[in-house]
Design goal:
258 residues, Serine Threonine Protein Phosphatase 5, Tetratricopeptide repeat, 12 helices, 67% helix, globular
């Protein structure tokens, strides 16, 4: 789902502990430049070893300031990114860690979208991991709605409309009788209209079309994902293009008959 548009930086050097004479003094915000370093590496987070380096950076900050808003929301975003590629127990465990870190960010700055959004995504991923029915039995629907609705109120256009995409996907993923594909289609159509560069929104809307026996319409959207030029978040784009190829494999190639 996430979370992420940062300036393109050169391939960062491996993160390692500075020597005693080089180690900068820590403040409440952490060592100077850590956010810029993190955000630069974030653009390479799907490369070997990057996720581990990103977490190490954040854990160093949180060891000094456990309530750090900037570190906690980034940690939640990292766990959500990792959970999105996992299944069952691993997905649930990472989603829960994301939710917990994001709630700490909300406690530090309730007026910012980052914490609410990442907490909602974490709850959603946890729910997918344990199973939606189990999550509903644990009373998580209200917790999810509180956080995603807060994100929508604060900034519905954050990350190219990411809160809208999560909100639309929520209606699609619910089990009967709560499931509402029409509402999912409505929300996701608006997200795609307002943010045509959001590849995840297009894939999720394609799922809605396929569910309604409109596979050709869904395929057109998925082809847009496959043909999309490079954007602001290369790892997310690579992941979405892979999902798009899987979608085509599952639903068949485009219908080119006249």
């Amino acid at each position: 789902m996430l979370f992420f548009a940062f300036l393109l930086l050169a391939q960062p050097a491996p993160i390692g502990p500075p020597s005693a004479t080089q180690r900068p003094s820590l403040t409440a915000e952490g060592p100077a430049g850590w956010r810029e370093d993190f955000d630069g590496l974030w653009r390479h987070r799907d490369e070997s070893g990057a996720e581990k380096k990103l977490e190490q950076t954040l854990q160093q900050i949180l060891a000094v300031d456990p309530r750090s808003f900037e570190a906690n929301w980034r940690l939640a975003a990292l766990y959500n990114w990792e959970a999105d590629a996992k299944e069952t127990d691993e997905k649930a465990a990472l989603g829960k860690k994301a939710w917990e870190a994001a709630d700490k960010a909300v406690a530090a700055n309730a007026g910012d979208v980052h914490g609410h959004y990442n907490a909602a995504v974490g709850i959603g991923l946890y729910s997918e991991g344990v199973g939606i029915i189990t999550a509903l039995s644990q009373g998580l629907e209200g917790k999810f709605r509180d956080r995603i609705l807060a994100a929508l109120r604060i900034d519905k256009d954050y990350l190219n409309g990411a809160p809208q995409v999560v909100w639309g996907r929520y209606f699609f993923k619910l089990p009967w009788p709560k499931r509402d594909v029409d509402q999912a289609t409505k929300v996701l159509s608006e997200a795609v209209r307002a943010h045509p560069e959001n590849l995840r929104a297009k894939i999720y809307l394609a799922d809605c079309y396929a569910d309604g026996d409109k596979v050709d319409e869904g395929t057109k959207l998925v082809q847009q994902v496959l043909n999309a030029p490079p954007g602001d978040d290369p790892p997310e784009e690579r992941r979405m293009k892979k999902k798009a190829r899987n979608w085509i494999d599952a639903h068949g190639p485009p219908n080119t008959a006249q």
